[in-house]
Each structure stands twice: as C-alpha cells, then as structure tokens.
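As the next step, I needed to go through one protein, both as residues and as discrete backbone shape codes, included below for the reader:
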Amino acid sequence: MNAAPLVFITGASSGIGQALAARFRRAGYRLALVARREAEVRAWATAQGCSEADAGVYAADVRDLAAIEAAGRACIAAQGVPDVVIANAGISVGIDTEIFDDLEVMRATYETNVIGVAATFHPFMRAMRRRRSGTLVGIASVAGIRGLPGHGAYCSSKSAVISYCESLRGEMRPDAVRVVTLLPGYIDTPLTRENRYSMPFLMTAEDFADQAFEAIRAGTSYRVIPWQMGIVAKLLRLLPNALFDRVLAGRPRKHRQGE
C-alpha cells in the first residue's frame, strides 16, 4: 500500500503556512512542518488530531543554512522525499536606507525571503530529479512586481523570488520536476495586520490556501492570488514611471522594525 503524499512547508507556525498545512491535510497529504517556533506547530498539529505519522515537525530558521539543510535531511529520513515543497517562510518590514540599522533589516529580509527559498529547496532537488517527479513552490508576492515606498527590502526580495523560481523552472523541467511561483496579494495574516494603508481585495489565509492548492496541484507555473490583484499588478507594470510615482505620492510607508 502506497503512503499518502507528503508536503514540506516552511513558516508553518501561522498565517499562510498554517493555512496551507490545513488545506493539504484535508486533501489527504502527510505533513512535514518547519518553523522557528516548534512548540506552536506541535500544538497546532495536536489540535488538528494529527499523529506522528500524519505530521512531522522540524525546528529551523531558514536563515540558518545548516539548520534548514538538517531539517530537510531529517524529513527524508523519517518521512521520505516530499511530493511538494513549499518555501513559505518570509518577513515583511519597512526600511529607510538613510538609517544604518535598517541595512541589517534588509540583510535579514534577503536571507529569509530569498536565500531561505533556495535553502528550503536544496535538500530535495537531487532526489526529486532522480525520481523524476515533485513540485517546488516559491511564495513570492504581488509586491515583487513594482517597488513601493518604504518597502524596498520586501519588494526587491520578492522580485528576486520571482526571477529565481523562473530560472529554476527551466533548470528542473528536463527532469520532470515542476516549479510553481505564487504571488499572494493582500492576505489577512499577522504580517499584514500592522499595515498602515488600504489593502484592496484582502482575503483570508484559508481562501488563499484553497486557491493555492489548486494551482499547485495543476502545476501552474505562475499565479497571482486573488485574480483581481493579478489585473492590478499588470496595470501597475504598464504605468509609466511618472504616472506610477504620482499614484503612490503620499501613500503611507510600511512600518519599520519597532514602530
């Protein structure tokens, strides 16, 4: 009897990561959940009625390359090679380049949001290639399409995720491994609740997870969720710089660390 399929998710302690875990579990997947806050993930898994066979929990910060590598290897040893790997862990903090301390915030953002994606995929790529199956999912953001004032670290990091996953998609295609890039719009999570500006088409993490699950199952290479934000993103991309700058004039900046 074949084991149920396995999904590996980083940033699984709350928000999008937790919602994705719940959605995949409803679809019959076994879970491999990674977060810095291991106790919170274990408590959630217990509350969901998961057994140890249903859900493996691994403590790791994706900025710590050795730790996320070890988590991946532990997952393979205990549960097998995942069918789906979702690099979801991310941080969102505003920066002001004039302030020296914010350069460290930018470094942390890049290490988490960009290097962390590659580090999440790394332990599984060789095995997926040999098996000639698997799906690698990078969680980017609509914010990666154009830069927003005060949001330079986050926007540029998510733009990097989009380009990285596009590059990886071409590399993995000959070995039948899919790469899916998902661009959430505004999702109601702890990360967005502190935003000081309007968030059009705000959706719940659960609704996002439903649509993300369908896109991942279909192997869609690139998907903006919700679709309305996809239209907004395309329009923003087409705006000339002068008009784009005028539209954003006076928009509240993303909060900085400690604000």
